[in-house]
Amino acid sequence: MSAPFGGGGRAAGGLPRLPTPPSGWPIGSYATYGEAQHAVDFLAEKEFGVADVTIVGVDLMLVERILGRLSWGRVLGTGAVSGAWFGLIIGLLLGMFNNQGFAWQPMIGGLLLGILAWTVFAAISYSMSRRDFSSASQLVAGRYDVLCQPRSAEQGRELLAQLALGGRPAG
């Protein structure tokens, strides 16, 4: 079966076009992404074919870290500052492309319009939300498995065993 737009089932670089479960055999499991990344770096240093390797986050969790309490003053102030920067940039660009040389009026107009618009949008957004705090969300995994295609999984497992022993060859 061919893809509706041609090109088969894989994009450039051999990656699947659609979300696809990973394939391969597990050659290592790590508590953090940094440890899994270090393991793949180690494999690369040992000239292992890392194109056969995939890092898979298992037991995914959405973690929402609370940054602070929101108030009308904070919401309106943040909206005004964001609008000021945006309006200033737009006004600056309009002022630079003025036929009579640089003009200050577009910059000041953009600044004032940006402050007004962003403050209004921030107020509407805050009044419609039911949250009195700001937060940042992050997708994290309970563990990170390193998978490898079967053709080189055993060699990868042996190299990662060396890494676990402190980088010394096993044996």
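The above is record 1. Record 2 follows with the same two-line structure.
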Amino acid sequence: MTDVNKTLQRCEAVIVDLDGTMVDTMGDFAEALNRMLADLQLPAIDVQTIEPMVGKGSEHLLRAVLTHVLAQVHQASGQPVPATEIDNRYAQAWERYQHHYLAINGRFSRVYDGVEKGLAQWRSKGLKMACLTNKPLSFAEPLLRAKGLRDYFDHVFGGDSFERKKPDPLPLLKTCEALGSKPAQTLMVGDSSNDAEAAHNAGCPVVLVSYGYNHGQPIRQVAAAGYVDALSELQA
């Protein structure tokens, strides 16, 4: 029996991240962001540039994308980006991004291998389960339904469900409350340092997947109880 399985077997509940852990949503991000940028008459951005920006919520993603793209625009003109330009453009960018993301949600994404098998295994063992993501709830719920994953979870919480987002521990503590589980017996499964930091500070054990989006950094450099190449490897 592996150490990660021993960790799960000591738990009564599991909290699972969404983007980069259950679903590869990079295609959705790229499509919605580039449609938004076209609406704002700004140049497109490539997937490789987007990937390190993902994981801290849509607000952070949009500001990072605008900062990057506007820096390119102003570099071409030889002028620095005015400090107020991102703030001035943000409201329109968010409205257009939300419009496009909801329109294409799930169409350019895929469920990672082993996810549904892993979720089914945990459910069959009677573990309480929640999905906790920094993605807005209005994006997360339809995506889980589209991919056939929603019914595995007792609760789904997004980046706008609580006052703060991961890596703050508050979302994990609130999710444990909703599940009726103690943090020390609630496993966090994620793909990034955000998930690990939130779990450590909440007192939850954490297991990380070897794929996903970790802000461009090697995942095995992040402290965790263990690492898996697929959720199906993590058995109760």
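The mean pLDDT is 95.
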